[in-house]
Protein: Vitamin B12-dependent ribonucleotide reductase
Organism: Flexivirga endophytica
Amino acid sequence: MTDTADASPKAQRAARKGLTVERIFTTPGVHPYDEVTWERRDVVQQNWKTGETIFEQRGVEFPDTWSLNASTIVTTKYFRGAVGTPERESSLKQLIDRVVLTYARAGKENGYFATDDDAEIFEHELTWSLLHQVFSFNSPVWFNVGTKSPQQVSACFILSVDDSMDSILNWYKEEGFIFKGGSGAGLNLSRIRSSKELLSSGGTASGPVSFMRGADASAGTIKSGGATRRAAKMVVLDVDHPDIVEFVETKAKEEDKIRALRDAGFDMDLGGKDITSVQYQNANNSVRVTDEFMRAVEDGSSFGLRARHSGEVIEEVDARTLFDKINKAAWECADPGLQYDDTINDWHTNPETGRITASNPCSEYMSLDNSSCNLASLNLLKFLREDDTFDAATFQKVAELVITAMDISICFADFPTESIGDTTRDYRQLGIGYANLGALLMATGHGYDSEGGRSLAASITSLLTGASYKRSAELAGIVGPYNGFARNAEAHQRVMRKHQAANDAVRTLDAMDSEVHRFATKAWADVIEIGAENGFRNAQASVLAPTGTIGFMMDCDTTGIEPDFSLVKFKKLVGGGSMQIVNQTIPRALKKLGYQNEQIEAIVEHIAEHGHVIDAPGLKPEHYEVFDCAMGERAIAPMGHVRMMAAAQPFLSGAISKTVNLPETATVEDIAEVHLEGWKLGLKALAVYRDNCKVGQPLSDGKKSKKTQDAEPEKVVEYRPIRRRLPKRRKSETTSFAVAGAEGYLTAGTYEDGKLGELFLKLGKQGSTLAGMMDAFSIAISVGLQYGVPLETYVEKFTNLRFDPAGMTDDPDVRMAQSIMDYVFRRLALDHLDFETRSFMGIHTAEERARQLETGSYSPEVEASDEEVSDELDSYSQSIGATTRRDDESSEASGTAKQTEAPEADVRSGSGAADARAVSGEIHSSAELLERFQGKAADAPMCMTCGTKMRPAGSCYVCEGCGSTSGCS
């Protein structure tokens, strides 16, 4: 969104009375809803443990490009109104309109747009971007905006507490209201006197840890009073507080209590009936460390703990001993994390107003006390062009569009307390971020823990924040800077220059990151120039949040800054049932790395069988790093996570929600190294998690403790398939076909439920060798189908086989075939597999392909007639098995908006579909699928809503089954 007048930029800004909004994706005169195909779906959600139906709404309307999982989570989480009543939302159109029309109306009322046409373009661009999963607002926006409820748009809150009973009790109350609304809050308790100091009455103070107990009980009570997740909260204590050792060891001691109670037979799983007897389990704890303390750790010198009121040193401690206690506690129970105080405040744009003392529960939002932040995240894979280049120009435009909408929301937003509302309206803190970084890096052949991966991540993050502050400065020239800017102008400009200097220090390695970095450099130059003239509309612009539930809404493969969770994923099907699929990014990455179709096919099959790339046939060891994940055989090393955080941190207003995972064998010294390097590399916050360090993490059903396994003799159970024969009389359908002039007949017989159970092929004359071979082949396939071999497995194996006769067919749905086998199994897929399963394999009817062409799904590099394009695309799809493509932005070459048939089927690999195969009925998530490959339980909680094992998302957990999170995201 830019001004296009010929006058100088300064003259343009002086004359402008509102934003002139540029079209990015939309077409004049065409509403975004009219460019997609809509379908009705039934959303039924069950708790797989109890069999109880926990949600049911039939006939909901979504684009056919949205996955079943995305539509399920949006329906259950975000549709408003009582189910079964006319007031209940039943279409994505209603949800998007409820939000977007509120934003557009508020923008007009508050003078953001130059004309009504600009307001309409803004409305359509926002609608298009949400409809095509280009970005998403945080959950409170979807919950509240446009409803009769208070218009709360923020997910992150920071509170404050002083050293008085009134303030402490007010803390409890404010936190309770925030938890009741499903959000989270953080605060620093360091103003409260320690248990080593005296009260004015002469008695000894209770200390902050004592008051933490009451707040923890309150959070637990509100959770048990009806919430479906634990209350999300963060408690911070300064490292120089006299009670710091008690604070550090609090949760570790409770973990010892959990072990003792578990061994005594009590149910101590997370959500278990006895876990409530344990204290301090509802908060994340962090120690706020200073440069002075960290230098004392390096030097081995002493460090002073200070009285809260006078500031005098009341106790000297050995810095290394205290640091060791922090590391040991984190080793034992993952708490506390660290927040690096001097780094945080060195990047603070409002130091004249007050210091930053705390964060939200997930540690990405760091700002003034009694403040809030609303978040939004961009889906990075939406900006990856067909030629594997990143569309930096469109990315910048979308960032400017989204940051505009986020700022508008503050004009009409409601807040849980008056002080939070005042601070937010005065400083207008925003938190734009992104998701799918891990998937983007893999798709483009970059290792997550590589110089190239970090350079690309740094450049993208720099462009995101630079574009956001550029738009913030432009908005300041239209609707004014934030109220607190004048007193903080010099500091704010200083931080902008620090961001610009960090951008200049990025060393790019290839054409992709160089292009992105070029845009970022221009954006930061504009920030300095326009900001010097106008000031800024927002004190903060960017964070990297967990993107848990909204990540599923956008059909993202990876959350926030995280790498991919695993190479094999759990996938629900529209027609019921489920399967495991190899990460759809893998074939594209292999193609990018130069592998041929046959090699890609073999590597993908190896991954499907083993869950990792080690010893995959033909895969070069130097390429292993591209496929490293958060979990599994080649899990990314802890310092790989720290280095990626350090690459992005200089370009964020806030911090990064991320936990650095360490193996169970990690030592206290390993954790100390991570904490030290995080400080040296300039992170603002860091949390670690050592596998299996917590007792209160439930294992999947059927998992036994090692003690139990050792005590019982091993039982070997052999499972044999059972043949399900077809009835004597069954329905069948015969299809005549011709491939390159060779004629044949395909007869397919089905069970009563319509499922394929047999096939017969007739090609040659009776008695010929070919006819005999076809009879034997048909019998073998039929018997396999009757023993339960999925048809999709046969389709995967026999499509793309190349041998003569090959060429044109007489079937309008399969115009080209590489062989008779290729044709036969494509025809069977079209006749007997559901659309979503076929989409993984790149198999579509003529009607589906025509619809894709009409909506711009495919964009050939050269101009051609519609017929030539259709023929070319059919040939391409049949010869290399390309699957349907993701929603993408307008390519600069064609200017056409691309949309997808199936967002998850993004192979574009030239190797056919990624391997898809049935999974055990006992597996309900990717975390449980990873357990099967690893042979051990994943260290994650069960979802309290649907019973599915959750997976990490930043410093929280998210449920693939229903979208619930364990934190504030």
